[in-house]
Design a protein that fits this description.
Layout (H helix, E strand, L loop, with lengths): L1 H9 L9 E8 L8 E9 L2 E7 L10 E4 L4 E4 L1 E6 L4 E2 L2 E2 L6 H13 L2 E6 L5 H8 L10 E4 L9 H12 L6 E5 L11 H13 L4 E5 L2 H10 L3 E2 L10 H9 L3 E2 L3 H8 L11 H4 L4 H7 L2 H8 L2 H22 L19 H12 L4 H7 L2 H6 L17 E4 L13 E6 L2 E2 L4
Parallel strand pairs: 1-4, 1-5, 6-9, 9-10, 11-12, 12-13, 13-14
Antiparallel strand pairs: 1-2, 2-3, 5-15, 7-8, 15-16, 16-17
Length: 421
C-alpha cells in the first residue's frame, strides 16, 4: 500500500482523482462536424481520453464529474498571428520582454479563451522558455509557439545567415515582412525573400509572410511561402491568387482587427463600454487612448485613413477566398500597443462573420483549421481523443450568434480550470 501511495505521488495523473469527466454540454468539436448534444469529455493526464455522446462514452469510476448541462463547449481558440513579450500598456521596449510579462500575457489570452497563440516575430528567450515548458498536464495558461526575430536581411547572403541564426534558436517557424508601409519604406526584394524561404526550408522550417499587396502575395507563393499572415489589402483578389493558395494548400490569416486598431481610436470605441472588455482593461491605458489630441491626430493621419479603406478590401477578399475553398486561419496581430490580447480575437470572429462567413466557418477557422494550418493538428484546436484538453465553456451557443463566444463561463487548459485574474 505504501508503494502504491508513493507511485501516485510522483505520477499524480495516474490517480483516479486526476481523471475528470465533463458531462452534459452541447459540444462543438472543432472539426466542422455537427454539434453533439449531451456530450461527455473524459480527461486524463491533461489530454482527452474519450469524447462523444453519453450513450457511447463511459465515465470512469472515481472520475471527478463536472456538470455542464445547458452549456456549449468549443475548443480553445487558436490565434495564428499574435505577438507576446515586449509590451506593457502602450509602451513597447525590449527590456519589457521578461518571463513575468510573457506569462502575464499568456494568462490574459487564456482568460479570454485563446488557449494557443502563434507569436509571429520579436520573440526572445522568455517566450522560448515558456514554449519549452508547456507540454505538461498542469498547464493553466495559453500555449505559445514562436518565430523568434523577424528576418530583415537586405541581400540573399545576409538572408541565409539570418535564417541560420534564427534556426539555431529552434523556433517553430520563421517570419518575414514584405511591405512598404504605404510607400514609406523599402520592401524586401524577391531575391532576398526567395533566399529566406529556400534556407528556411533547408533547415526544416516553414515561413510565414507578412503581406499587404496582391502582387507580393503571388510572388511569395511562387517562391514557396508556407503561410500568408495578413489579408491582401490593396485591391480585390483574383483567380490566380486563389489557384496559388490552393495548389500548395497554403492558409491565410485575415487579421482584420489589425486594420481596425490603426483608426478606431480616432474617437472613443464602442467596446470601451463592453463589460467583457473592461474586466481586463487598464483604466490608465483607456485614459491615454481617450486623449483628444491623440484622437485628433488619428483623424488626420493618412495611414489611419488608408487602413480604414483597406479593411473594406480585406473583408471582401476574405469572403471571396473562403467561398473559393482557401483555408482561413483566424489571426489578429494582437500584442502591439492598443491591440488588446484576448478581446480583439473575439472582435475578429465578429468581423469575419460580418464579412459573410457563417458562425460555423468562423469557429472552424479559429479552432481545428487554425491548428491544422500551423502544424498543430491532433494536439490543439479539436476536442478529439489524444488532443490536449483545451476548451471553453460558453453560456450561449455561438452557432446562433458568433458574439456568444464572449459568454465565457470557464476556460480549461490541459483539463485545468484557468484561474481568474
Amino acid at each position: 500500500m505504501l508503494l502504491l501511495i508513493l507511485l501516485l505521488a510522483v505520477a499524480p495523473d495516474a490517480a483516479p482523482s486526476r481523471v475528470k469527466a465533463f458531462v452534459g454540454a452541447r459540444l462543438i468539436d472543432g472539426t466542422g462536424a455537427a454539434p453533439t448534444e449531451g456530450a461527455v469529455i473524459v480527461v486524463r493526464g491533461g489530454r482527452i481520453e474519450a469524447v462523444g455522446p453519453r450513450a457511447r462514452v463511459t465515465v470512469p469510476g472515481g472520475a471527478e464529474r463536472i456538470d455542464l448541462a445547458g452549456k456549449t463547449v468549443i475548443p480553445g481558440l487558436v490565434n495564428t498571428h499574435g505577438h507576446v513579450g515586449d509590451v506593457v500598456g502602450l509602451r513597447s521596449d525590449p527590456e519589457l520582454n521578461t518571463t513575468e510579462n510573457v506569462l502575464r500575457q499568456l494568462g490574459l489570452y487564456a482568460r479570454f479563451g485563446i488557449t494557443t497563440v502563434y507569436s509571429l516575430g520579436g520573440d526572445a528567450a522568455p517566450a522560448f522558455r515558456a514554449r519549452d515548458a508547456q507540454d505538461t498536464p498542469f498547464l493553466e495558461r495559453a500555449r505559445i509557439r514562436v518565430a523568434g526575430p523577424v528576418i530583415v536581411a537586405a541581400t540573399p547572403e545576409e538572408a541565409r545567415l539570418e535564417v541560420d541564426e534564427v534556426a539555431a534558436l529552434k523556433p517553430d517557424l520563421v517570419k518575414i515582412r514584405i511591405d512598404d508601409n504605404l510607400g514609406t519604406t523599402a520592401k524586401m526584394t524577391p531575391a532576398v525573400y526567395q533566399a529566406v524561404i529556400d534556407q528556411a526550408h533547408e533547415r526544416g522550417l516553414k515561413v510565414a509572410a507578412h503581406i499587404y499587396y496582391l502582387d507580393d502575395a503571388k510572388g511569395l507563393l511562387r517562391a514557396g511561402a508556407d503561410f500568408i499572415a495578413h489579408s491582401v489589402r490593396d485591391r480585390d483578389v483574383d483567380d490566380e491568387l486563389v489557384r496559388l493558395l490552393k495548389e500548395r494548400d497554403v492558409c491565410l490569416s485575415p487579421t482584420l482587427m489589425r486594420e481596425v486598431s490603426t483608426f478606431v481610436y480616432e474617437a472613443e470605441p464602442a467596446f470601451f463600454s463592453d463589460p467583457f472588455f473592461l474586466r481586463e482593461a487598464d483604466p490608465a491605458v483607456l485614459a491615454e487612448l481617450r486623449d483628444p489630441k491623440r484622437q485628433a491626430g488619428l483623424r488626420t493621419s493618412r495611414s489611419a485613413q488608408e487602413y480604414k479603406k483597406a479593411l473594406e478590401i480585406a473583408s471582401r477578399n476574405l469572403k471571396r477566398l473562403a467561398d473559393a475553398g482557401v483555408r482561413i486561419a483566424m489571426g489578429t496581430d494582437t500584442g502591439p500597443p492598443a491591440r488588446f490580447q484576448g478581446y480583439f480575437e473575439h472582435m475578429e470572429l465578429e468581423l469575419m462573420a460580418k464579412a459573410g462567413l457563417t458562425p460555423s466557418q468562423v469557429i472552424l477557422s479559429a479552432t481545428g483549421e487554425a491548428a491544422r494550418c500551423m502544424g498543430g493538428a491532433g494536439q490543439v484546436g479539436t476536442l478529439s481523443p489524444g488532443a490536449w484538453a483545451d476548451f471553453v465553456v460558453l453560456g450561449q451557443d455561438p452557432l446562433g450568434d458568433i458574439r456568444n463566444t464572449r459568454t465565457i463561463e470557464s476556460v480549461w487548459i490541459a483539463g485545468n480550470r484557468v484561474p481568474s485574474r
